[in-house]
Model the fold of this input.
Amino acid sequence: MQHNVELSEFLRSRRARLSPAAIGVPTSGGARRVPGLRRAELAALAGVSVDYYTRLEQGRQLNVSDSVLDAVARALQLDEVERTYLFDLTRARPKKPRRRSQRVRPGVLRLLESLDDRSPAFVLGRGMDVLATNRLARALITDFNVLPARERNMARFMFLDESARSLYVDWAAVAMDGVGILRLAAGRYPDDPRLTELVGELAMKSPEFRRWWADHHVREKTHGMKRYHHPVVGELTVSYESITFPDDPDQTMCVYTAEPGSASESALRLLANWTATSVQ
Done:
């Protein structure tokens, strides 16, 4: 999780995925000892010296300008999320940042409750901590409220709770997205002890997490679709929208909806009725 090591591994992994032929880099045709582009080839594409790029990729402490980072990002063909991650990795941060306690505003809690009968909704904090859920989200996914505070984490549920593997139809894809989201958070907060502890625990207990973490993929989920196989209402597909709060960018509210008139909408309605009855 150290900044220089992470920067080095990220740059090497992004360089390795580039095919010289695909981006028009001439080669001699002989066998290449490394996958992807060589450092000299990448440096030429970025318009920097080989020595400068080598020091950057080795994770040495450099005062890198935004223009150089932009050039490296373009040469590596980084998407917007990966570019943001690269900038995060090269920016100095306090060694021991003060971790602000994340609390969900009362108005947001009321908003979650107002969706109880039609839309699963929850608030994620830094490192995918589950800060708040409404009744329908707890019925669809799991009841995070009954878990110890340190275990209320979506990534932890995904990898360490066996029920998650049967709940998510596309478990591997959803779990890999979770790894990418954690990787992005680790770049922004490399010295966060709670995040470091979570990554260490997941890497120790889950071979899938350990393998996907080593791929250095980063993700930022804003919207999409998830498929569930629920033990009570069966198969359902939901769309989700993620909303980040301006006053706390580390908090994101996720709201699930189903296509009007679909079998999934009926399943959500059935689940809402079932959970309303079960809590009476």
